[in-house]
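Session log. Operator J.P. requested a structure for one protein chain; no other inputs attached. Running the standard single-chain path with token output.
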Amino acid sequence: MPENSVLIVDSDPASRETAAWLKGAGFKVATAATGEEALSLIDNQDFSVMLLDMRLPGKHGLGVLREVKVKRPWLQAIVTTDHPSVESATEALKQGAVDYLVKPFSPQDLEKLVKDTIKSASKQKTVHVQIKAKQTPARISYQATFVISRDSLKNLVNSLIKEREAIGVRARQGKFVYDKVKNFDDLALDYDVTVNPPTAFFIPACETILRYKLGPTPEITPVTDTTPRVLIGVHPDDINAINLLDEVFMTGNPDPNYAARRQNTLIIGVDVLTPLPSSFAPSMGSYTAESGYDLLLTDIGNSSYMVTVGSEAGAQVLAKYAQVREPTVAETARQKQVRDEALSKYRLFLDMSRDKIPNLLENNYDNPYWKMRSETCLNCGSCIMVCPTCFCFDVQDDVSLNLTDGERIRKPDGCMLVDFSRVAAGANFRGDKVSRFRHRMYHKGKYILDRYGKFGCVGCGRCSVTCLAEIASPLEAYNAIAASETAREKARRTITNTRPQPELYLPHLASIVKTTPLSSRETLFEFRLKDGHKLGHRPGQFVEVYVFGIGESPISLTSSPTRDHTFEVAVRNVGNVTGALHRMEAGAPVGIRGPFGNGFPLEQMEGKDLLFIAGGIGIFPLRSLIQYVLDKRENYGKINLLFGARSPAERVFAGEMAEWSKAPDVTFMETVDKGDESWTGNVGVITTLIPKVQFDPKKTVAVVVGPPIMYRFVINELKKRDLADDNIIVSLERKMKCGVGKCGNCQINGVYVCQEGPVFNLTRLRTLREAI
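Structure written below.
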């Protein structure tokens, strides 16, 4: 690189004065009036620093910057502009600019900035490989790039195969798959795409997470896979997919099973030479990988590869098993040429910047495209089976024939499958094709980004190839929506705080203290943890109740934390787990995970009048709050309790309600949808009670819990009484398999009900189109 060389890219005639000044200060200066002219110069000449104006005739300055950083990533770029904005400054720095300079500026300031930039670049850490007599590197460092011969690479791979389970890309029947390899010659390193994604080895098709043994003293043992493994031939887009899964499973409630696999797996990546025709990885920023690999290969021909070290583990295996050397200038140039040629082979692109996708989706929830395009969906789930970023799962129990031993099995699940969002009572909150199709596209383009800061699509193109209906491509969906809408604001990341649990899926042993029938279908269960500790819950939270050999079910807590060292849940008999629970007697063992969720906003309710509205078994979670408020009666104002049931026979906790009504400043009203000869009370749906109750909307917080169909009508009545959205609290029922924001079953738009819910105020619900 010529020392102290500067390229000025600016159409402003005043740039000639800048050039003259810098030449007088001892710099070698070249100028270009257009982006195209600048790129032509850079193709044939290197520079220390580039001064790049944002507004150029023809190609925009940021577009020039992007191409320059691909061609010569080491070039130090200073962006200049006379129309500054926060957005353009942020984008320039994101694209690799080292500084953002607002015009006009003095020649002296510019000279100092250029000198400082060159000085700073020259001090950047360099890495050297020292070669011993046997050409074995004595020191190979992280983030360095070397040249490795094919023979040396073969030795490295074959050595790893001897000590690890090796999974690599193999040719099979005209396609490519990840499969076990026995030697280097099994590998196909120049391929377009694999049928199965490499992430399948971190979230396998069937994985044991627990083993248990029944008996007088049940035993539960967590199971993790710590097999040393190496994945060979992973493309950068798939490496970026793995980076996303790392964010999902290793931050905020770290998943022990995923973490064990990930931490024991080496990843040897390889740059794409022949992209899949349906891939649009460059548009998603995933055709290159900056991290997530241990070694990254680029085939530069002549039986040689450039190898970039991405981790200390990668440095160690390279030093141990390979002979490498520093690249020549020609080899570095060849690596860039190979990558540029591969980039030029992509044929599909987004019609807008990917940064605009989230707001594009935000503004087009009701776009007719979703219904029109989803009509041909076959509900087969093939798109989610091949997707490297899909991570939702289901858990099931597998009992041995002796009915004593068993395992908890985790299997991949997905939002495009019909029963993915079906809850135990039978309701399916995403039961039609359009809602599932739309959710997948929002999940990829917005919800995952909002939650984890990364897009949920890496543009690999597998779903387009696999989908028989030819509707699965996110690229097609986003471009179609973009054709009818212009994005107006940037995405907002809303990563929420979660409470980590070291043993994420391991239930605490508990036993049934007492069972109390409430009706023909409902029973109240009292539990005590085996270790004698309190559960430590808040009213409104839930637990996952585990019945050995049957499975696990999310159940709302029915008792207040203010009462004893036991806790209660009221359960309706509607499925395998709840049915098995109903057959159990006092003393029987169960597993308990939790408590989970956010609970009711107790602090917000203090000093306020309270309006409790419960429909049917909605009284179950609400009972915990009522008990809590009555136990701390001095902290709350007047209480109005409205309860509705379908029939007199389905009234539960009738005796307790009668007792509650006798407490100071408590008004109790109830109704049934349809009465009988014994019923003398109010007949009608629960909304008929709301006009009869007196409350001050400015001093009242309403808590509503019941079947989904009830919410819309109750909320309408409360709004007629001028109750503020912030003061209308509801608790939602959703299918929740994991309780820790991983399995994806409970997701509403971009929110996980098991973490941010199940309790929401109406203000929040209005931002969640799928909620009610």
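Operator note: The longest strand covers residues 508-517.
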